[in-house]
Design goal:
Elements (H helix, E strand, L loop, with lengths): L1 H26 L35 E3 L11 E2 L3 E6 L2 E6 L6 E3 L8 E11 L6 E9 L5 E6 L4 E8 L2 E10 L9 E9 L2 E6 L2 E7 L7 E8 L5 E11 L2
Antiparallel strand pairs: 1-15, 2-3, 3-4, 4-15, 5-14, 6-11, 6-15, 7-8, 7-14, 8-9, 9-10, 11-12, 12-13
Length: 241
């Protein structure tokens, strides 16, 4: 029958095709696929953080005052020439009279000492012609050594005896002294006959003098104009040089 032979032919043909396909599939070798090597990224290192500024510990110093206690010993007074006050955790000296150094001492006694204080001029004449800083080996009448900077970028070391101010280092300009109403971290070292003044971690000058071997420590401020100057002090500390 035509139909039967056609079907058989188709089946036969299909069988041959399937056989050939099976042989081809069995004889085919799968190719080797090479995958790229993956490199793991290095772990990220966190950026270093700045350590917080340490608060001074009073036990680490021979003398320390953060001016939180208004009975800690510094002068409190106001007159026509000046005012001295504890003010919200700071100590302030306001000098009103031109060319008169206003000063204050806490009633201590040291020979060799390293004295540090944070200072800022909060008010002054427009030309910043002022001075402020540290007293070393101060006597009860104000004699001693005055190691000071000015808001217009100068520094000096003076020997003070009565009304005489003798420049051991005359006023000298320095880029290390921050001008205007900026904070200056001051340090005065009185060790033997050596007197040194630092501003913001930098040495400004050193000189030798043997007039006063011991005395108090203190703070000072002066205006050289008709306008007053007000200086704020914080974290006053004394240690061995």
């Amino acid at each position: 029958m035509k139909t039967s032979r056609q079907v058989r032919s188709c089946v036969t043909a299909l069988s041959i095709v399937l056989c050939l396909f099976t042989l081809a599939s069995c004889s085919e070798i799968s190719p080797i696929v090479f995958l790229p090597t993956l490199t793991m990224p290095a772990p990220l290192t966190p950026a270093p953080t700045q350590p917080p500024t340490a608060t001074p510990n009073p036990a680490d110093f021979l003398y320390f005052d953060n001016f939180q206690d208004p009975a800690s010993g510094w002068w409190v007074e106001e007159n026509e020439d000046a005012s001295f006050a504890y003010d919200d955790g700071y100590y302030t000296i306001r000098s009103k009279k031109k060319e008169i150094m206003q000063w204050s001492i806490p009633g201590q006694q040291f020979a060799d000492a390293s004295i540090q204080v944070e200072t800022i001029q909060v008010e002054g004449p427009s030309n910043d012609n002022t001075s402020f800083g540290i007293l070393c080996r101060a006597q009860s009448n104000g004699d001693g050594y005055a190691l000071r900077v000015s808001a217009d970028g100068y520094y000096s070391i003076f020997l003070v005896k009565g009304d005489d101010f003798t420049p051991l280092i005359a006023w000298t300009e320095s880029s290390y002294v921050r001008q205007g109403n900026q904070i200056n971290q001051l340090k005065a070292i009185c060790s033997g006959s050596d007197l040194s003044l630092y501003a913001n971690g930098e040495l400004l000058g050193t000189v030798r003098d043997e007039t006063f071997p011991t005395g108090d420590v203190g703070l000072a401020a002066t205006t050289y104009e008709d306008s007053p100057v007000e200086v704020r002090y914080d974290n006053f500390r004394v240690d061995l040089p």
